[in-house]
Write a structure and sequence with these properties.
The chain is an alpha/beta fold. Helix content is about 30%, strand content about 30%. The longest helix has 21 residues. It starts with a strand and ends in a 5-residue tail after the last helix.
């Protein structure tokens, strides 16, 4: 069984100690570091890869939620906090679990078990080689979809619409399931309901992205991430 590599981010030494001791009791967890703020944690993540982050919300300079929103490649996230009012916003960021302090060990075990199961599913769904196409089941047929033809993908209830250069496909899938099979550096989430091909973006206008004359909304949870990516390719004087 593959070990889950994790880090702990919390400005309270006692809280870090408790979570570290919990981690040490779980055979499949491997602790890779502890940090008192998001700045030092972010510096570590630029040089190291982890599977899971335990992060507090109320921290100096950069809050835990701001830190999670800023991550380009997001590991699994478990929020650890004494403030229940942030729960909804936390779950909107696709976190694995939300643990309220003081954290009982039994509750911690449930959270990390969810993380382990999700990690196993993700490994099974990840292609061993980079693909240039996928097959999508649409009603009574299976369609081959070239990744380079995808403009954007929209989630509507239990279905997704895949918008291509020349047509639209509808499939009984979740946005999360198809996102896990697309290259991270080519497709980005701009909203809970929209995933777009980064190379197909024509312009960014306020809180909207324009693709082929279609304006798509940018959620405030994803705007900083998108603008950071754009900034990396922005021509400067």
């Amino acid at each position: 069984m593959k070990n889950v590599r994790c880090i702990i981010i919390d400005d309270e030494p006692v809280a870090r100690k408790i979570i570290r001791e919990f981690v040490e009791k779980i055979p499949f967890l491997t602790s890779c570091g502890q940090f008192e703020d998001a700045i030092n944690a972010n510096a570590f993540l630029k040089q190291n890869q982890v599977d899971l982050i335990f992060v507090d919300i109320e921290m100096p300079e950069i809050s835990g939620l701001e830190f999670v929103k800023s991550l380009r490649v997001k590991p699994m996230i478990v929020i650890t906090t004494a403030f229940p009012e942030y729960a909804l916003e936390g779950y909107e960021l696709d976190i694995i679990d939300y643990l309220l302090k003081p954290i009982a060990f039994s509750r911690f075990v449930k959270a990390v078990q969810k993380a382990k199961e999700y990690n196993n599913l993700k490994d099974m769904a990840t292609p061993s080689t980079l693909l240039s196409y996928l097959f999508v089941r649409c009603k009574k047929r299976i369609e081959k979809v070239e990744l380079g033809d995808i403009l954007y993908i929209e989630s509507v209830g239990n279905y997704i619409h895949v918008y291509l250069e020349d047509r639209k496909l509808t499939a009984y899938l979740t946005l999360k399931s198809i996102e896990s099979q697309l290259p991270l550096n080519e497709f980005i989430k701009i909203h809970q309901s929209f995933l777009v091909s980064f190379s197909k973006i024509n312009s960014i206008e306020g809180n909207h992205i324009k693709i082929n004359n279609k304006l798509l909304p940018i959620s405030r949870n994803y705007k900083d991430i998108i603008m950071n990516l754009v900034e990396q390719r922005l021509l400067k004087r």
